[in-house]
Design goal:
Helix content: 55-70%
Order of helices and strands: HHHHEHHEHHEEEEEE
Number of domains: 3
Distance between the termini: 73 Å
Largest sheet: 3 strands, antiparallel
Number of strands: 8
């Protein structure tokens, strides 16, 4: 079973936890708890060591990436109301009282008549009106500056779930790639071991044939056999080496009345594949 299947099994439970989350931190914590559950379930599977290591490492990396997840859903903007609004309204009223008194005084003077009273009344009324206007405007600006709106962003459970689903898709692919690479390596190793064993048996056979042919090298068929085996092994990049004091290390020595090659050595790139046997005085 892959990690996405485990996530699908827990979908309803996870969505309920995400719906109950009031901020991004709670949402990410719920996602991390789900990732821990998936890690635990994967650890209980009977996996090969390489596969188990790939699962653990990949899921731990995915868990670390959850903090970068976008959990934002609906954005809500609230206007501040209540005691702060009331206090600001009272402050505005107190600021308007003096301007109202000036305007009222102007109105009284206007009602008395007389050129001086009318002129003074007009000035006071206009001044009171302007004062009231400016005071009210400033109170409104102060209220806006001191009372920014409340902005709240809710969590989108479906968005979080789908992001985790996409993340685990990558995780499963990475795990499968690691398992496939390991299987390929094992298969290649088995083939190489088989080829190596086959080559070893083949070299042993050719070495024995050469020993028989060297015993009868005066015969034409023996010389032809030696030539054919040399040619075949040369195509396999294996050299057939006769005894000489310079290459004595390639041979096992047998004391004899004369010197010569009893069985040639088989060598590849300086490595002895099959030691030869030589007669020495």
């Amino acid at each position: 079973m892959n990690t996405k299947d485990y996530l699908a099994q827990d979908k309803e439970t996870l969505l309920k936890k995400l719906e109950a989350s009031t901020d991004t931190e709670m949402s990410i914590r719920a996602a991390e708890e789900e990732m821990n559950r998936i890690l635990t379930r994967c650890a209980q599977e009977n996996l090969a060591p390489v596969a188990a290591m790939a699962v653990q490492n990949t899921l731990q990396t995915a868990k670390a990436a959850l903090s970068l997840m976008d959990t934002a859903g609906e954005v809500r903007i609230y206007e501040r109301k209540g005691s702060e609004e009331k206090l600001l309204s009272e402050a505005a009223i107190r600021a308007l009282v003096p301007s109202g008194m000036v305007w009222l005084l102007g109105a009284v003077l206007l009602s008395r008549g007389g050129a001086g009273s009318i002129l003074l009344g007009l000035l006071l009324s206009a001044g009171g009106y302007a004062w009231a206007f400016l005071t009210g405007r400033k109170a409104g600006q102060d209220r806006q500056e001191s009372e920014p709106p409340i902005i709240r962003t809710t969590t989108d459970p479906q968005k979080v779930y789908h992001q985790m689903d996409m993340l685990l898709t990558v995780v499963d692919q990475r795990i499968q790639d690691t398992i496939d690479m390991e299987n390929t390596r094992i298969s290649r190793s088995l083939k190489e071991d088989a080829a190596s064993g086959q080559m070893e048996e083949e070299l042993k056979l050719f070495s024995d044939l050469l020993a028989l042919a060297y015993m009868q090298r005066d015969e034409v068929y023996a010389r032809e056999m030696i030539s054919d085996i040399r040619f075949y092994l040369h195509r396999q990049q294996v050299d057939v080496v006769d005894y000489d004091e310079k290459v004595a290390r390639l041979f096992d020595m047998i004391p004899s009345g004369g010197s010569g090659t009893i069985r040639p050595a088989l060598v590849q790139d300086g490595t002895v594949l099959c030691k030869g046997i030589a007669a020495v005085e």
